[in-house]
């Protein structure tokens, strides 16, 4: 153990070797004290392992090979009753790449007032580094531009120099009195602001133990709720069961033809879904609600709650947990709370800050693709836009339909509007998740393209497509999906789907959502979670509670 410790803290050793040594030190230690010391070194070294000087694809590769280290370390900290440390480590070790990109976009207003030259230098390098990070493998296709050949190696060297310059500038800023914490990982006192609008429940799933860590406004300490009736194996089993149900229903694309398929698997779904949702209720949701003293209510004025899941639980519908078997007493999470999700606490804090900067509503961009070349028809996307227009009153709605919904026009529209409604096909790329995309008339608007943009008026987005919040199973802790990408570029809240939706259900949801969002003198995107909650209730009344494939996929992410 002492040799692992010596190798881990050796300042001249390669970061990758020190990282592995620190992990072995943490895992081999005989006491919690020494184990947590090892994990602290692990998290100190993590930014050097998934380094900004690498492409996003390369960083994701490094992270995928590590496994769920954040959950492992958090479980160790929880066993030592150090709940604040557990929460901080879960924040540091998850959505690593998103957090790095957020750092590059962090406003530097205070720094700019006191040290404008340094702030401008950092801004320039951050912008260049952000674009370099997204270069992917496409650089090999570049040949000549302005008579200048850029080889892959030259581009990679430029990228590394930018990362080194960024680190140099940040270190220089931290040496200035009053800026010692500049872009440092947030401590509990800062993370607590995530719960300003309601409790945030971080559910840590590890093979050694499962726990909920809760942040609440007005509560200085982290509330710990042991989940003794749930295990990592349970999460894996439920995930596998859900995947089997979804594969049987072929719900990987929004399609009018899904109606017949889903009727054929309806009986299987009726049996499969209740067991999944019942287990989520009894082992996770009910213990949390009991500890928070939240009871069922028949009113619409329900408390909000944010779920932040880890491991296999990230792919399970906590927001739909309940006991739906007619032969026993019925329990339904939607009778107790209005559920939202967040990839991390930091994402929720940033979303709240984004929302606070928007002064006036700049209109809604409504995109529909009833006939995308190469894909099945989606006739009800046109109906969706009709429902939006009907509910929008005198507010500006700019439509892009069919051929007009090109990549360029959609990006330009997102740049000038506050809200975006995107009714189209979408694809999840399992090999290279940042190539997951919205399918527009002239091609794919990829996640890798979206995250290079900065939409100044961005506030709320509705992704009425398939798998827009599914994520990559090899990167369960990284939230690599379209909904998270839109939050990164400034959208405070996103309505998305965790599997495909029935084409005929989308207009019903859109109608009720925008009826609520446009009901006040000024559109308010912070009502999106409530609006979706009410819309799903209305859909359930039409299709029945047992039509899980129809109503469960809709989720809200963000504020």
CATH architecture of the largest domain: 3-Layer(aba) Sandwich
Assign the CATH class of the largest domain. Alpha Beta
Secondary structural class: alpha/beta
Number of strands: 18
Low-confidence stretches: 137-148, 256-262
Write down the overall geometry: globular
Terminal Cα span: 45 Å
The percent range for strand residues is 5-15%
Q: Which fold name corresponds to the CATH topology of the largest domain?
A: Rossmann fold
Strand order of the largest sheet: 11-10-12-16-17-18
Overall pLDDT:
86
Taking all Cα atoms into account, the compactness measure Rg is: 23 Å
The biggest beta sheet is recorded as: 6 strands, mixed
Number of domains: 3
Q: Count of helical segments? A: 22
What share of the residues lie within helices?
A: 40-55%
């Amino acid at each position: 153990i002492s040799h692992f410790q010596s190798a881990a803290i050796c300042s001249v050793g390669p970061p990758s070797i020190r990282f592995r040594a620190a992990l072995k030190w943490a895992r081999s230690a005989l006491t919690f004290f020494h184990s947590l010391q090892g994990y602290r070194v692990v998290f100190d070294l993590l930014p050097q392992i998934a380094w900004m000087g690498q492409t996003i694809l390369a960083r994701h590769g490094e992270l995928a090979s590590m496994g769920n280290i954040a959950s492992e370390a958090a479980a160790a900290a929880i066993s030592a009753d150090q709940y604040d440390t557990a929460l901080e480590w879960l924040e540091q070790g998850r959505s690593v790449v998103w957090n790095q990109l957020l750092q590059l976009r962090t406003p530097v207003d205070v720094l700019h007032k006191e040290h404008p030259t340094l702030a401008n230098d950092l801004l320039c390098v951050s912008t260049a580094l952000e674009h370099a990070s997204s270069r992917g493998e496409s650089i090999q296709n570049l040949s000549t531009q302005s008579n200048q050949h850029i080889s892959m190696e030259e581009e990679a060297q430029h990228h590394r120099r930018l990362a080194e310059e960024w680190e140099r500038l940040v270190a220089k800023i931290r040496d200035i009195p009053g800026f010692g914490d500049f872009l440092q990982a947030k401590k509990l006192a800062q993370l607590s602001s995530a719960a300003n609008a309601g409790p945030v429940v971080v559910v840590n799933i590890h093979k050694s133990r499962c726990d909920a860590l809760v942040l609440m406004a007005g509560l200085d300490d982290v509330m710990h709720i042991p989940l003794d009736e749930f295990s990592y194996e349970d999460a894996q089993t439920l995930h596998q069961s859900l995947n089997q149900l979804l594969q049987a229903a072929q719900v990987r694309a929004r399609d009018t033809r899904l109606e017949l398929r889903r009727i054929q698997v309806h009986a299987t779904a009726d049996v499969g879904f209740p067991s999944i949702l019942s287990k989520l209720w009894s082992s996770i949701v009910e213990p949390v609600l009991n500890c928070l003293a939240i009871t069922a209510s028949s009113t619409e004025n329900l408390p909000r709650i944010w779920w932040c899941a880890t491991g296999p639980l990230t792919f399970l519908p906590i927001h739909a947990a309940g006991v739906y078997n007619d032969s026993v007493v019925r329990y339904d999470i939607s009778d107790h709370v209005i559920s939202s999700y967040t990839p991390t606490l930091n994402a929720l804090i940033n979303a709240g800050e984004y929302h606070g900067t928007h002064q006036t509503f700049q209109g809604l961009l409504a995109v529909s693709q009833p006939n995308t070349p190469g894909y099945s028809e989606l006739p009800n996307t046109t109906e969706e836009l009709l429902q939006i227009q009907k509910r929008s009153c005198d507010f500006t709605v700019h439509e892009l339909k069919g051929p007009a919904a090109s990549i360029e026009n959609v990006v330009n529209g997102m740049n000038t509007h506050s809200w975006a409604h995107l009714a189209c096909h979408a694809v999840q790329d399992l090999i290279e998740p940042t190539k997951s995309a919205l399918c527009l008339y002239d091609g794919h608007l990829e996640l890798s393209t979206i995250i290079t943009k900065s939409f100044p008026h961005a506030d709320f987005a509705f992704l009425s497509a398939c798998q827009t919040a599914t994520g990559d199973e090899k990167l369960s802790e990284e939230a690599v999906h379209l909904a998270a990408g839109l939050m990164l570029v400034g959208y405070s809240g996103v309505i998305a789907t965790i599997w495909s939706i029935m084409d005929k259900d989308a207009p019903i949801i859109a109608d009720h959502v925008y009826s609520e969002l446009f009901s006040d003198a000024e559109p308010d995107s912070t009502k999106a979670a409530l609006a979706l909650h009410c819309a799903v209730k209305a859909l359930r009344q039409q299709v029945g509670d047992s039509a899980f494939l129809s109503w469960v996929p809709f989720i809200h992410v963000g504020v």
